[in-house]
């Protein structure tokens, strides 16, 4: 090779293998032997690396974001649970939540979780990356983006009320009535747990949205002042001032 010459290095694909060694006793010779097993874990390694990167990206304070959170629950669910069998309770929740799930893509909102009869969604939380996968948004939103997030959550809540009325309570024969609460603000997101890890949201925004729901009236959607400012509507008849609600 002369001065300045370069060698071309073959681009071999990276392959990772996991080797396990187990001590055994040969049943015929009664001698101790070693069993060596080699497994290709290349695909698993890539998946684990992506999960680690996802966890690191999501364990951040989303101060730049302003998602809108909606909590809802079933009016009279405690009494219903006492008067019906567990299978009836499960059947009702499955029917109701399946119908609500069908509205998620239509209104472009994210289902955070369900807990008992509580159903929680979020507007303005996720973006779509260049590969078409949904990722937690970290970009600072414009005022228009904040309005869109709140509007999506409200539109979901409004249609949710209509859909709930098509589900009948087996103990009374009457339609399900929900109450809902909306609040907008920063949250913390992250994957929680090592077994069946769960993506969750935390922070005062979640607490306030929950309080908006618990102090709401049956069949109504109660919003915080912050969310109301984002949702200002030229039809004032849609809104009824509460005069203020005291919450924890």
What does this structure look like?
This protein is an alpha+beta fold and 248 residues long. It folds into two domains: 16-54, no CATH class; 63-231, Alpha-Beta Plaits, CATH 3.30.70. The chain has helices at residues 42-58, 77-83, 86-107, 143-164, 204-214, 225-230, and strands spanning 17-25, 32-40, 68-74, 110-115, 118-123, 126-128, 134-136, 178-184, 188-192, 198-202, 221-223. The protein has a five-stranded mixed β-sheet with strand order 4-5-3-8-11. Strands 1-2 form a two-stranded antiparallel ribbon. The protein starts with 16 loop residues before the first strand and ends in an 18-residue tail after the last helix. The model has no long low-confidence stretch (mean pLDDT 84).
Produce the secondary structure layout.
Elements: E1 17-25, E2 32-40, H1 42-58, E3 68-74, H2 77-83, H3 86-107, E4 110-115, E5 118-123, E6 126-128, E7 134-136, H4 143-164, E8 178-184, E9 188-192, E10 198-202, H5 204-214, E11 221-223, H6 225-230
Parallel strand pairs: 8-11
Antiparallel strand pairs: 1-2, 3-5, 3-8, 4-5, 6-7, 9-10
GO molecular function: adenylate cyclase activity; guanylate cyclase activity; nucleotide binding; peptide receptor activity
Domain Guanylate cyclase: 68-213
Keywords: Lyase, Membrane, Nucleotide-binding, Transmembrane, Transmembrane helix
């Amino acid at each position: 090779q002369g001065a300045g010459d370069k060698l071309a290095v073959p681009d071999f694909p990276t392959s990772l293998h996991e080797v396990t060694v187990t001590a055994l006793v040969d049943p015929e010779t009664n001698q101790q032997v070693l069993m060596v097993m080699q497994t290709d874990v290349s695909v698993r390694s890539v998946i684990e690396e992506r999960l680690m990167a996802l966890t690191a990206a999501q364990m951040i304070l989303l101060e730049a974001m302003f998602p809108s959170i909606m909590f809802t629950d079933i009016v009279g669910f405690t009494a219903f649970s006492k008067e019906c069998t567990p299978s009836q309770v499960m059947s009702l929740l499955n029917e109701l939540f399946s119908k609500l799930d069908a509205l998620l893509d239509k209104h472009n909102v994210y289902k955070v979780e369900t807990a008992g009869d509580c159903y929680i969604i979020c507007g303005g939380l996720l973006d779509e990356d260049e590969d078409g996968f949904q990722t937690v948004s970290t970009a600072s939103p414009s005022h228009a983006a904040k309005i869109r997030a709140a509007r999506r959550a409200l539109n979901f809540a409004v249609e949710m009320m209509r859909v709930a009325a098509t589900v009948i309570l087996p103990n009374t024969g009457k339609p399900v009535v929900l109450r809902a609460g909306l609040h907008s603000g920063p949250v913390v997101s992250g994957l929680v747990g090592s077994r069946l890890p769960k993506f969750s949201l935390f922070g005062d925004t979640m607490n306030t949205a929950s309080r908006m729901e618990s102090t709401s009236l049956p069949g109504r959607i109660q919003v915080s002042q912050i969310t109301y400012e984002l949702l200002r509507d030229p039809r004032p008849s849609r809104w009824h001032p509460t005069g203020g609600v005291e919450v924890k």
